Amino acid sequence: MSETCRASEWQSHGRGTAYCLSLLSTTEWLQINIPTMDLNSVKSPLNFIQHLLDDEAVQVLGNYESWWQAEGMAISETVDRAGTPWLRMFDELGRRRDEILFPNCYWQMLRKGYETGAIWRAGEGRSLKMHYLIDYFTCFFDPGLGCPYIVSLSTTVPIIKYGSPEAKARFLPHLLRRDGTNWQGATWMTEIKGGSDLGSNVETVARKVPQTSQSAEELWLLNGDKYFASNVGAEVAIVAARPEQSGTGVRPVDHLQDARPTSSPHGLALFLVPRYRDGHAATSAPGSVPGAIATGSPDNRQLNYFIRRLKNKIGTRSVPTGEVELRDSEAYLLGNTEWGIYLILESLNLSRVGNIVGSVALAQRALADALRFAEARIAFGKPIIRQPLLRRQCEQRLEELRQARALMWTAIELLDEVWSETPRYSDRYHLFRLVTHLAKYWTAELAVQLAKWNMEVHGGMGVLAEYAAERWLREAMILPIWEGTPHRQMLDGLEVMERKRAHEMLFAELAPFADKEELKVIASRVERHLRLSSEEKEAGIEDIFRDLARFTARALAKGTE
Ligand SMILES: Cc1cc2nc3c(=O)[nH]c(=O)nc-3n(C[C@H](O)[C@H](O)[C@H](O)COP(=O)(O)OP(=O)(O)OC[C@H]3O[C@@H](n4cnc5c(N)ncnc54)[C@H](O)[C@@H]3O)c2cc1C
To answer: Atom 4 in ligand 1: which residue has the minimum CA distance?
Structure first.
């Protein structure tokens, strides 16, 4: 029996079913199997979120989970421990290539999620849910791998919404391929001076090329540097840049003379930048990298952006993050220049929900691993899961995880309602924004805390690089930072409450199932807070924002489960 159990250690376990504990006697094993705790449900992503899925999703995601258990987990571990990507900038003849190299098994793992439908299912109908569900399963097994899928979605959606007919015809069929050979997307906003204040710190300049009678499409050339560029090597990226001059309502900027061109985010626009040039434009930019123009891939396509180097990261090693140089890079405007900041925020909304999903999945994984260890590790004569303190901690963390799951699902459902909106947005969009700021902030914090606690449960083993516990903590550390730091979530959440009264919509949603007294207290705390001076409002937002996030998660868990 113990052999069978070992082989199926990661198989799904239904409510109250016995879990394999090959180190224990039958009596001990039976004592642990207490149905009321329902802790076993966290050991499989399918078991934990099955109640949210329809039959087709159960089938698709069940197969995906089985693949991860059979093959993906080993590949993921190899990539994390030994397969960190590297960059080959030149070929042997000195031609610039900028190739990202991974072990072959990496591409197999990456393709699996694309094949399963991380992108094409989103392009098929009006719903983005399957994308986020696939992301959930992916991140349970490899949190970094969620990144290529989410940035590819965040590239595909703006093309669907704002792309010209030419851009749609050129990019969408490749991004939406079903056989795993997709073109990948990427979202590059951040520059070296900082990512929180894009309005001040994006210095990449976009210059419009005068249109000729032959060129059907409006073409721009981008010059600048992106300091954090994840999924670098992608076939097409969305890139924030500052149009050089306007006539379009955007303030003129002299990039070279003014290091802080304008603090107005409305000076930004969003562009599509393909990996290879079309060759429409002359390529003699004053700031070009010497020799870079005469570059080519084996089939003689010229690189359109350059990878300066790859980052050496503590986690998310299954996505390459690099520094990108844009040198007269051919680019296509998305939407119009006045809407740039809205388009950037819309794409951030998509990846913030991805971050929420990744955080809850990683939190589940940390709890699952802690349980697995606690069931098998003996101290003071019994498995540590049966020590009252540890058992209580597990139950409390399961409860927090369920609340986080409810918050996550609400963010996904609201996004599904509003993702196709364009400015001016509806009230539901502003409600979605508030829920997303609360959820991004709170679930990322939970993931870090659970990953740290999992390490504690593993004791000394938790700190050793040869086991998984330290990996989950490394992977978790990025979750509060990318897609906007906790400060950003709090301040943007404050803004949407102040300007759009989004908290009132939130309280109305929660009223049917929230504790009435608690609701009254938090509602009046928020109102009192909003009456403070600007300085005090910002300075004191943390406590109330955290309490509001926890209250929302609690109420949603009561209402939806
Ligand atoms: C591994 C990795 C991959 C990434 N991939 C991408 C990518 O693909 N594309 C992309 O565009 N970006 C990417 N980023 C960048 C990421 O989005 C930024 O790191 C993040 O937005 C924060 O920006 P920053 O690091 O420049 O910090 P800064 O903006 O310099 O902020 C520093 C600190 O100041 C705080 N702060 C700023 N303003 C305020 C305020 N008003 N009040 C209080 N505190 C404030 C911040 O919260 C933060 O704690 C990546 C980052 C990492 C680490």
So the answer is: 228
